[in-house]
Amino acid sequence: MAGKFSGKVALVTGAAAGIGKATALAFAREGAKVVLADVLVKEGEEAAQAIRKAGGEAIFVGTDVSKPAEVERAVNQAIENFGRLDVAFNNAGIEGRRAPTADCTEETWDRVISINLKWSTIRG
């Protein structure tokens, strides 16, 4: 697949559905080799398979971005499989429980902040 990302390797987090999946597919259409990372294993594998079926190159790596070792593993898989990493599309995020902030548990708050803010700004 030729395009503006030909020869590039892109890692997309939250790639199993929604914006992340659409972005992974778009990178592939533009020629990138894509590493899809997500906690949704079945959906992530299916998205990677769709890229391969369309003629692109893609792998899926089960990844919880709130765990630094898993993010590091996804990066390492990109390098091991494709020899490099050029683009990181840090898309993973969660909504958490819809409720007033005062009703939010500390555990829920910490998880939402860890995934939506901390990982992409400090570790991303």
TrEMBL record:
InterPro entries: NAD(P)-bd_dom_sf (IPR036291), SDR_fam (IPR002347). Keywords: Oxidoreductase. PANTHER family: 3-OXOACYL-(ACYL-CARRIER-PROTEIN) REDUCTASE (AFU_ORTHOLOGUE AFUA_6G11210), SHORT-CHAIN DEHYDROGENASE_REDUCTASE FAMILY PROTEIN. SUPFAM superfamilies: NAD(P)-binding Rossmann-fold domains. Its EC number is 1.-.-.-. The lineage of its organism: Bacteria, Candidatus Bipolaricaulota, Candidatus Bipolaricaulia, Candidatus Bipolaricaulales, Candidatus Bipolaricaulaceae. Belongs to the short-chain dehydrogenases/reductases (SDR) family. It comes from the Bacteria. It comes from Candidatus Bipolaricaulis anaerobius. Pfam families: adh_short. This is Uncharacterized oxidoreductase TM_0325. It is an enzyme of class 1 (oxidoreductase). GO terms for molecular function: oxidoreductase activity. Gene3D superfamilies: NAD(P)-binding Rossmann-like Domain (3.40.50.720).
